[in-house]
TrEMBL record:
CDD domains: PAS, REC_DC-like. Residues 132-205 form the PAS domain. Residues 5-120 form the Response regulatory domain. The lineage of its organism: Bacteria, Bacillati, Cyanobacteriota, Cyanophyceae, Oscillatoriophycideae. GO terms for biological process: phosphorelay signal transduction system; regulation of DNA-templated transcription. Residues 210-262 form the PAC domain. SUPFAM superfamilies: CheY-like, PYP-like sensor domain (PAS domain). This is Response regulator.
Length: 306
């Protein structure tokens, strides 16, 4: 099993050595021990430890909270605070850096190990989640359909480039806003507002599709025929976490249908014309047959007289 690599940031030498011995006794690897915030930032960048144990009160001009904030900004490494300070002001400052845990001095080896393992597990899970989110975002950006996702309140959380192009809205403009601001639809024939499918999907927990003849009204007022469906996003136990809306423009389909309709009308006109011509030809043929019958009857009458 690969041992976790830890960086100790502690300005009291004896305390730092004691922590190092405890960590090594617990099976961890200590990449370095430093005493100032400036050193912590530098060494964190050089060694990229799995976790940093950070004292809040340090030597130098940068305290542990400031160092943790800079490390998080630059390297996104997990930090657990080691501190004897429990006043509200210090804790509130520390919270802003999103630490992965706190260990109050003095502490037992068991508490140290538990806090480290929980922090490492939390960080690993968050990393996996970020990777999955990045993979999903990349996938959604590359597909040909427009995609918009929302939270349970119907507020926009993501919109891919195709959706931006169709709606004429950018993700920066609408993220966190109500979907109905972005996705407005009307019936092409009645001009009535079409109920938002995402709201139905969130309320009913089922996939909802749009009726035919639906038009998307874009940011600039253009109307685009679309097909779409909305589905709830659920976790492993079925709890609804949000919704996803997938849609595409129907312009080509409408144009194809219009061309097909025009061709059908032309063919129907041709058939009607041919039918009329055939009817006229049949009438002429009947007239010719009647004329021929009369002439033959007259001829037969003359032959009898002779």
């Amino acid at each position: 099993m690969v041992r976790a690599r830890l960086l100790i940031v502690e300005d009291e030498g004896i305390v730092a050595l004691n922590i190092q011995n405890r960590l090594q006794g617990l099976g961890y690897s200590v990449v370095a021990t430093v005493s100032s915030g400036e050193e912590a930032i530098q060494v964190a960048g050089e060694t990229r430890p799995d976790l940093i144990l950070m004292d809040i009160k340090l030597d130098g001009n940068v305290d542990g909270i400031e160092a943790a904030a800079e490390i998080n900004r630059l390297f996104h490494l997990p930090v657990v605070y080691l501190t004897a300070y429990t006043n509200d002001e210090t804790l509130n400052r520390a919270k802003l850096t999103e630490p992965y845990g706190y260990i109050l001095k003095p502490f037992e080896a068991r508490d140290l190990c538990t806090t480290i393992e929980v922090a490492l597990y939390k960080y690993q899970m968050e990393q996996q989640l970020r990777e999955r989110e990045q993979w999903l975002a990349t996938t959604l950006k590359s597909i040909g359909d427009a995609v918009i996702t929302t939270d349970t309140e119907g507020l926009v959380t993501f919109m891919n480039p195709v959706a931006e192009a169709l709606t004429r809205w950018s993700l920066e403009e609408v993220i966190g806003n109500d979907l109905t601001q972005v996705f407005q639809t009307i019936n092409e024939k009645t001009r009535a507002v079409v109920q938002n499918p995402v709201l139905l999907a969130l309320q009913q927990g089922i996939t909802v599709g749009l009726d035919n003849h639906t038009l998307l009204v874009t940011k600039d007022g253009a109307e685009i025929p679309i097909d779409d469906s909305a589905a709830p996003i659920k976790d492993e136990v079925g709890k609804i976490l949000g919704a996803v809306l997938v849609f595409h423009d129907n312009i080509e389909k409408q144009q194809s249908e219009a061309r097909l309709q025009k061709n059908n009308e032309r063919l129907e006109a041709e058939v009607a014309k041919l039918s009329e011509q055939l009817s006229q030809a049949n009438a002429q043929l009947r007239q010719m047959e009647e004329q021929l019958r009369i002439e033959m009857a007259q001829r037969q009458g003359l032959e009898r007289e002779n």
